Structures are given as C-alpha cells and as structure tokens.
Amino acid sequence: GSRAPWDVRMDPTRLLRRSKRKSEKYIIAAERLIADESTYSEADTSYRTNASSRNISAIQSETESQSESVTWSDYRRQMARIEIVILILIRFIVLFCQTSLEAIVPPVMNTIFQFDDKANSYLYLAAAGEFIVVFGVLTAVSRCGVSDRSLVRTGLILSVLALIWHSCTIPRFTVGDRSQVKYFGIGAFLQLLGCPVVSEIGLALFSKLIPENVQGFAHGVRRFFSQLAVLLGPLWGASTLVMPLLMTLMPLGLQLLATVLFVIWYSRMLPASTNNMDMMSASENTPLLS
C-alpha cells in the first residue's frame, strides 16, 4: 500500500492529533450511551414511583371509604345478631365457671380434705398439663376438617356434664374424708376438658361470623364480658362455698340455657361469606390461624 509522506510519518504532533481525534470519537460515543441509559432509568423510576403512588392512594381511598361507611347502626345490627349474643354468653358462662372452680380449690382441699398447699400445687400442675394436651388435640382435630360449631357443641356438653357431676358430689363432701377427693378430681377434669373447647374454638367461630369492618368493636365487647366473667366467677365461688348446692346449681342453669340456645340456632353458626353451602362449610373448617 501507499505510505504517508516522510514528513508526516516523522512529525509526532500529527500522529498525536490523529490518535486524539479517534479517542474523542470513542469518548463521545460512550457519553452518548451513558446519557441514553440515564434517561431511560430516570423515566423508568419516575413511572414506578407514579404507579406506586397511585396504588397507595387507591388503597388509602378504599380504606377511608370503608371506614366512613361503617356507622353505629352497623355495629348495633351486627352485635344484636342472635348467634353473636349466644357466643358471647357461652364464653361468659364457661369463664365464670372456670374461675369459680379455681377459687374454691384451695378451701376445699385445705378445709374439707385437709390437704396442705403442696397438694394444691399438684392439682394446679395437673390442670395445666391437661390444658396443654387439650390444646394440642384441638389443633390436630381442627386441621382434620371438624367444624368449629361441632367442637363448641361438644365442649358445651362436657361442661354441662361437669356441672351436673359437681352438683351431685360437692354437697355430699364430709370434712376429713379424703376418699372423696377423687370425685372432686373427676369433676374438675371434665370441666377443664370442656372449657378450652368452648372458649377458644368459640372465639375462632366468633371471629369468622363477624364482618371484617366491625372486628375491632366486636372483640372489644367480647373482651369486656370475658373480663367481667373472670371478676365475678371467684366472687361467686368464694361467697357461696358454705352453700355448695346453690354454688353449683346456678352455673348449671346458666350452662343449660346457653347450650339449649346454641343447639336451637346451630344452623346459623356458619360464616356468611358466600351463598354456596359447600364453600361455607369449607370456610368454617379452615383454622383461624394457619
């Protein structure tokens, strides 16, 4: 090929200008690519920010519209439903009976059976172990497809049997006869067997029956009556210990009333999330916490 003139090949300034021009072309092309990528990334970021802002605004407006749509008449209408009233009543009664039993355990063990505090501790320890086993069984059973209302009905039957047992045995206890402690233990076992079934599974069913927009208010009302039962139960048990028949018959009457009401309105103890009965049953069998 042809070669450049001698003066061009030997002049270093011309060689530098040629390489500089080539370098500037590469630099300009690279800067153009970087500018294009920056413009695209800024546009993409701006689009995502706008989309996210629109989603947040939509969620906020939807939440505000839902909260504004709930009125006191809605709260009253939901809380006045017969199935909700019954579930609050049965939880009140079962907690009332449980705390009443807890209150009379020390005087019965110490005064009638003449055991010391160590025996009371063993009894409470056994009760705690029973609670742990019952909750474990409930967890397994609820995941096997057994409906909440069926479990609550079973717990109510156990509670009624326990109170009938107490009504037949506690008034017949004699001071110093330790052979009767087994009858007291059987009644306590039955009552503590039915209590967590009614209270906790009933709570899960209560949450499924209440619409989402009134859950907070409904659970506040439920909590109020639960705490009222916890306060009144020990007062009733301690004050009527000298009249054991009255102490056991009054809770028995309340428990029978709640059980009859639950059985009568048993068909209404279903979540009203859909009109399809098969879907409703599946929704009822679903555990509240998975």
Account of the protein in words:
The protein has 290 residues and is an all-alpha fold. 81% of the residues lie in helices and 0% in strands. The protein contains 10 helices and no strands. The chain has helices spanning 6-10, 12-69, 72-79, 82-112, 117-142, 148-169, 181-209, 215-239, 244-264, 277-285. It starts with 5 loop residues before the first helix and ends in a 5-residue tail after the last helix.
Stretches with pLDDT under 50, minimum 5 residues: 274-282
* Overall pLDDT score: 79
Share of helix, binned? over 70%
State Rg. Answer: 37 Å
Tell me the total number of β-strands. 0
How do the SSEs run, as a string of H and E? HHHHHHHHHH
Largest sheet: none
- Shape summary: elongated
The end-to-end span amounts to: 83 Å
